[in-house]
Amino acid sequence: MLSRGELDTYATNKPTLFEMSDSMPGARVLDENWGLEHMAIAIPKGREQGRPFVGSFVQEVQTSGLLERIQQEAGLRGAIKAQP
């Protein structure tokens, strides 16, 4: 409907919007956000001893630039860095 001009706007996550806009001349993705998608890592009950490893892994991935490199390699645009 959007590509046929039956809608003026469409809202979904930024990576999807950027992908869609690539194939729609004149389309633009607004800078603002209307919502956020949060990701989490879970540890099964009884395996709490893994929490320090998971915590240090997440910290390393976020601070080393690895997460940004993965996003770039995957073509993921519009991701917002989580606040610690």
Give a quick rundown of the structure.
The protein has 84 residues and is mainly alpha-helical. The chain has 3 helices and no strands. The protein has helices spanning 14-22, 51-63, 66-74.
Protein architecture, described:
With 84 residues, this protein is an all-alpha fold. The chain is built from three helices and no strands. The N and C termini lie far apart (39 Å). The model has no long low-confidence stretch (mean pLDDT 86).
Contiguous uncertain segments of 5+ residues: none
Instruction: Give the N-to-C terminal Cα separation.
Output: 39 Å
Instruction: Round the mean pLDDT to the nearest integer and report it.
Output: 86
Query: Can you give the helix content as a percent range?
Result: 25-40%
Order of helices and strands: HHH
Oligomer: single chain
- The proportion of residues in beta strands is under 5%
Structural class by secondary-structure content:
mainly alpha
| Annotation field: number of helices | 3
Strand count, sense and closure of the main sheet?
Answer: none
Q: Give me the Rg, rounded.
A: 18 Å
Give me the count of strands. Answer: 0
| Morphology | elongated
Record keyword descriptors for this entry.
84 residues, mainly alpha, 3 helices, 37% helix, 0% strand, elongated
SSE order and pairing:
Blueprint: H1 14-22, H2 51-63, H3 66-74
